[in-house]
Design a protein that fits this description.
The complex is a heterodimer of chains A (693) and B (548). Chain A is of the alpha/beta class. Chain A has 16 helices and 36 strands. Classes of the chains: A alpha/beta (693), B alpha+beta (548). At the A-B interface, α3 and α12 of A face α1, α2, α5, α6 and α7 of B.
Chain lengths: 693, 548
Amino acid sequence: MSLKVGVDIGGTFTDVAIEDRTQRWSLKVPTTHAAPEEGVLIGVEQALALAGRPFSDVGLLVHGTTLATNALIERKGAKTALLTTAGFRDVLEMGNEGRFDQYDIRAVKPRPIVPRHLRYTVDERLRFDGSIVKPLNVAEVRAVGQRMREAGIEALAIAFLHSYANGAHEVQAKNILEAELGFPVSTSHEVSPQMREYERVSTTCANAYLQPVVSQYLIRLEHALNEKGLAGPMLMILSSGGLTTVDTASRYPIRLLESGPAGGAIFASDIARRLRLDSVLSFDVGGTTAKFCMVDAGEVHHSHTFEVARTYRFKKGSGLPIRVPVVDLVEIGAGGGSITRVDALGRVVVGPDSAGSEPGPACYAKGGAEPTVTDCDLVLGKLDPDSFAGGSMKLDRDRAVDALNATVAKRTDLSVENAAFAVAEIVSETMASAARVHAAEVGTDIEKRTLIAFGGAAPLHAARFADKLNIDTVIVPSGAGVGSAIGFLRAPISYELVRSISVRVQSGPLPVVAAALTEMEIHAGEIVHKAADLNLDAYIVKRSAHMRYVGQGHEIEVSFEHGASDATFGQRLCDEFQRTYVQTYGHALKNAAIEATTWTVKVSAPIDSPLVNAAAPDPHIAAPNRQRQVFDGANGVWETWPEYDRMSLRDGAFGAGPAILAEAETTTVVPANFRFTIGTQGLVWLNRIGGDQ
Amino acid sequence: MTAPSQQDRIKTDLIWQRLITILEDQAQTLVRTAFSTATRESGDLSAGFFDRRGRMVAQAVTGTPGHVNAMALAVEHFLEKFPLDGLQPGDVLVSNDPWICSGHLHDFTVVTPVFHRAKAVGAVANTIHVVDIGGLGFGPDGRDVFEEGFCVPICKLSAGGAINELLLEFVRNNVREPEQVVGDLYSSMIGNESAARKLSVLLEEFDYQDFETVSDSIIARTKRTVEERVFALQDGVYSNAVRLDGYDSEIELKLAVRVQGSKMKLDFAGSSPASSRGINVVLNYTTAYAVFGVNCVLNPDIPCNYGSLYPIDVIAQPNTVLNAMRPSAVSARHMIGHLLPDLVLGALSGILPVPAEGAGLIWNPSLRGRLPSGSAFAAVTFNAGGAGAHHDRDGWSTTAFPSGVKSMPVEAVEATVPVLFVRKELRPDSGGAGQFRGGLGQIMEIVGEGQGPLLVNAMFDRVLNAAAGRQGGLAGAKGGVWLASGKPFRTKGLQEVQPGDTLVLELPGGGGFGDPAKRCQEAIASDILEGYVTPEAAEADYGKRIDA
């Protein structure tokens, strides 16, 4: 029977998950940075050995990698040039002319990926509606091509002003220059056909910059896999969480960024669909970061812009803007390895810097001297020094105590236990704050969502985090350590296109929009069909518009059914906008004009998430395996908590908090105001007492 | 120390963080719903929480320096006129009085009491810039404040939940974009309401009656830290002066910073008298930008509240340009306000590491005219010059400071109004030479494509007075404003650009830091390769010829 393989290359490990209809095998191998395909082969072979199956059984391989992200962060892409409109040579460097920190007058801005001496200009000019002010100076393009060749450039981006409305000049220049230079050229109307020149130029340059690196890697990998006897196709996971072919990925490598985190969000959305949970918050906490994502009706929230390679890791505005469809994740610097300290005002703060795995938290006894969140969890008794990572690494509580005493406890006059409690509270508060701000930004409620917690450090903090957000239900799935690779196996084949067309929306049809939507639907459909090969009527098409009141600068996304040429279309869209606006901001304006600026079309193959029942058939009281001393910070006393080995709990087992559920990969903390149940498929449910069940 | 007090201490930190989150939430919502370009593109707003005693306890991270401290001072006046305990749930206060709020009529401050367990426990406030306030429109041409629009004294925007319809009728009848202005007032009110609800939930969660003990702790800790930092500075008086182009005559700003123990006093004695036109600054706004300058180098990590403002006194003589009195015209007060941080940093240069002077003022030509159909259009764009170099690095090119403004995409502006930007790119040789080079300004060329002339409301400075270098660094290039036709064009005030003519703006560069002779050869070669500096200028400034 045919196997599905998910491979996620991360910074440290390459995760592999293999599935057939009934079973799953997974493992981690070290990432081989010099030639990442080697790690992939080793990992897949080992996982196949675990399953006892040959390479030829693999019917589908789904792959995600940090290669593109790292190439941008480390500036290891190709020597790239930009061709742009005369008078606008410095769009990439001037950016938005703002600062990302009000008070830091010494902040370092990101260096442009194309230096000024490789930014060439040519005479041409379009208006916003695509009409021509000045035709393209073809002779000048040829002359510039000559100079580019002499400069030895390896990649080229072409981005003209207003090309989202008319790509003709870009196509003309591309045809001349591809012939001259002999390699594929990225044009902005293809990579990111949206208004706002800085984001479009930045995205197009990044795409060109990555193209040689990524396409060469993919060719090598496909070749190696075919040699091993891979029978089925390889598909790539996109930033949006969809899948596409290697060919499309090679043309638009910019869409491969952030595929790992996208896998995690899909992992959560799959659980949401199986359990029919309509409103979910995915919560993924590892060693360095916490990531959140909203999942509504089984669909992960999307965004159309994000940043990479920030000069200040968690500072909005300090990176390169990239505008492609992406899973809407919030990432903050708060994980198990996050360092805690006391600021100038005597406040306990956590992160955003992390001790990572080397040297790691103080309790790892590998030379780390600064206290981390993990050290605090150990001091509070939530982590067991002897069974961490399945007992493979003994934690040193004395070092954790010393590190906390030397910094946090000393500066705040708190006892070491209270200091550890303060850190645990602050880290939950920090995560909750980030989730609240994000919820407000996207205009959704966070209370009454179900929290799905995974990643090594999430189950330790999930219940307290949920409590702060007034969330009643937490689910801790198994297999959380390789969540992204499993998520890859659940991803739908899909492709999304986004285009700027500014129109006033009032009653009546919008023929220009209707034509564009049809064209986008065909284009996205072709890309999806290449990978999925289903009957044409099997595909799901979703459309949305980004709308605002005329005069505003920020849009909200409004979904709609097709029919932009219908007479009722404008009215339908306005009504839907008003409804969404009220839902988001609490009021609507009666007489203000409405406009739409951007249109998206997403075509997907259907996904198969078989429904399961949440509750296991045989409810029974769980029996604790031992007891543990845990510090109750709210009352400032040590208490005895029961401890359960999660692997020994059968489906249907339940018990009251406070309790600790220990397993090799992580530890789940059940506070006094929660109880736990083991549901079907080994999911741990934490329910807040007095909350909605 | 007993266990409960340790727990209370932890709770205070948690509440502090939550307060800032609640306010940041509110600020973000305002940015997303705002109609005024200034508010939505540049965060020209602020949101804060005040305790029962009217002291500002916390403020959103997003916000512009000009509103930060101004609002802290404004709310006192609101609560003086309408004491907290006399207010009912559903009451909302409003005003745009420049002398009470933040210095010009375009800024509305909205104050909403917060109730918990049927008792007023404080107030949330926000200030936003609205798109129009009648009168001459946003610009420096006014001769008194009455020409600049209409003033709403502190009054109730809502009483017990009933909207003050008469007030809104007044607003609608006096502004050019009634729906947008009223829409922004609604957003402010709803934002405050939502924050007030969350604050009550916060008290419930931590089981507190009010915020008074928490605010005492927050303010005391902040005040103590700022005082310690001031105390660590060498006592003395540190002076500086800068010259600005002014509206029709040059303006001199003078400052003496007196550091004495844990107090810092900023005294602007000797600064020029108030201008006859709308570039005057009220004391609130002077205080806001002066304190911001201090905070950039002394307290960049300290959240703003009553305690952080307390140790710093600001004094300016009445009827000077930095403490203009009614009925002075004040609309374009940012033209002077934005240069105050440079004045402050220069004064502190002997005791703290500070950069050279920068372009300071944002160049925001407001563009008006008629569409081919005959109806009116208006747009404003924000554009930044170069920032000053530091003792160890070059200055930022085309970066707004002290304003938090971001520029508008050319494509977005052209899609809104019939204007063509022929050029918007870096201006070579505009950064002041030095061991570290000042940031570059930019060159813009603008053509009208509407019916008849393009109306430009000019608000430009540093055309006569360049950004000075520091410690041997040279000054940045002065700004330039001219028409391609050679016809004259003033740096301030409403003027016409005739069809076929082009407005050219050369934005000033930042000052250099340190002796140009000490600049390393690789940096000079790289500047020439990238075209930041022309070979001719390199030869003139760095004294030797380098072939790139």
